[in-house]
Design a protein that fits this description.
single chain; alpha/beta; 11-stranded mixed beta sheet; globular; Thiolase-like; Thiolase_C; Thiolase; acyltransferase activity, transferring groups other than amino-acyl groups
Length: about 375
């Protein structure tokens, strides 16, 4: 439990763009800046009123090229915040913007801050995930990502998210057919949510895009069955993995004092949060212990939670999590997930939380839990309580 209440008083996002889609040519700072500017405008903190913001914490995984040089600070200034407002960029791999929320909440709960913008951005069309994986060779001295001490501990075996996801499918006995059913459901749920306008209140129009580009109405089990596995002899295909995407999202977190002083309307409060390390070879099993940890912190059981958002890095990750935690499809990723909606790396944690906040309020549900696997074998988990 946090030492003091921390409220979510705003949560917005861009629509998620497909690779080479409507957001592909945008500068990441502009994309993030548009989202943060709308967040502050909705809260009545645009312009000079933004001096009340203590910090901007933004997640970004591939911090090279247009996403380098502390993108959080550039986003803050691009959003029109006064120059007195600082910014810091966070890399906890896919959980970077969820970690930004955690750091922001910790600052507020400790009394060191009252208002913090927490979010993330990634334009993967410009900077694909492979760029960060090879940055040592490209921009350093030809060094591999792992060194001699790593090799002494883990050997020279392949360490990739693809192998990790396949190992999870093998270890939990998850079939390709089961994963394809899961992937189809992700698209079906996302398309239904779009048709019902369930994302409309959370999406900021950026570059004319107001609708997530990832969900595919023409996806079928028959088409997925025709795809070749990502690895020889494996069962994972591109259809069972999250999409390469462009996007940004941001939340405004506030102390109780800031809520009163600025006349803000709480949407939700952070009930509990946690982060864990996990097997770096399988890499993606962290959401299981992270969920268990944060439930214990909150004094809740999984049955007490109304809605779960578990990042769909791969279908096998969520299916293994469901088996271990005992949560069905009726409460998990009910509006679709990253297989359909996309996964703009550093922006996804904030995207998931934005969707969760809005859906909790829309449905009148009390508790929502978000968790996501992360490169290197880690995971964040957060429990929100509707205000």
């Amino acid at each position: 439990m946090l030492a003091g209440p921390v409220y979510v008083v705003g949560a917005v996002r861009s629509a998620v763009g497909r690779r080479k889609g409507a957001l592909a040519r945008m500068h990441p700072a502009d994309l993030g800046g548009h989202v943060v500017a709308e967040l502050l405008d909705r809260a009545g903190l645009a312009g000079e009123a933004g001096r009340a913001v203590d910090d901007v914490m933004f997640g970004c995984v591939s911090q090279i090229g247009a996403q380098s040089t502390n993108i959080a600070r550039i986003v803050a200034l691009s959003a029109g915040l006064p120059e007195s407002v600082p910014g810091t960029t966070i890399d906890r791999q896919c959980g970077s913007s969820q970690q930004a929320v955690h750091f922001a909440a910790q600052g507020i709960a400790s009394g060191e801050a009252d208002l913090v913008v927490a979010g993330g951005v990634e334009v993967m069309t410009r900077i694909p995930i492979a760029s960060s994986a090879t940055v040592g060779a490209e921009h350093g001295m030809g060094l591999p990502r792992e060194g001699e001490l790593w090799a002494k501990r883990y050997g020279n075996q392949e360490i990739t998210q693809f192998r990790g996801a396949q190992l999870i499918a093998d270890d939990w006995g998850i079939s390709r057919a089961e994963m394809e059913e899961f992937a189809l459901r992700s698209h079906t749920c996302a398309l239904a949510a779009q048709e019902q306008g369930l994302f409309d209140s959370e999406i900021v129009a950026v570059n004319g895009l107001v609708r997530d580009e990832g969900p595919r109405a023409d996806t079928t089990l028959e088409k997925m069955a025709e795809l070749k596995p990502l690895t020889e002899g494996g069962s994972l295909t591109a259809a069972l993995a999250s999409q390469i995407s462009d996007g940004a999202a941001a939340l405004l977190l506030a102390s109780e004092d800031a809520v009163q002083r600025h006349g803000l309307a709480p949407l939700a409060s952070i009930r509990a949060m946690g982060v864990v390390g996990s097997d770096p070879v399988r890499m993606l099993t962290g959401p299981i212990p992270a969920t268990e940890k944060v439930l214990a912190k909150a004094g809740l059981a999984a049955s007490d939670v109304d809605l779960f958002e578990v990042n769909e890095a791969f279908a096998s990750v969520v299916l293994a999590w469901q088996r271990e935690i005992g949560v069905g499809a009726d409460r998990t990723n009910v509006l679709g997930g990253a297989i359909a909606l996309g996964h703009p790396l550093g922006g996804t944690g904030a995207r998931l939380m934005t969707t969760l906040v809005h859906h909790l309020r829309r449905t009148g549900s009390r508790y929502g839990l978000q968790t996501m696997c992360e490169g290197g074998g880690m995971a964040n988990a957060t429990i929100l309580e509707r205000a």
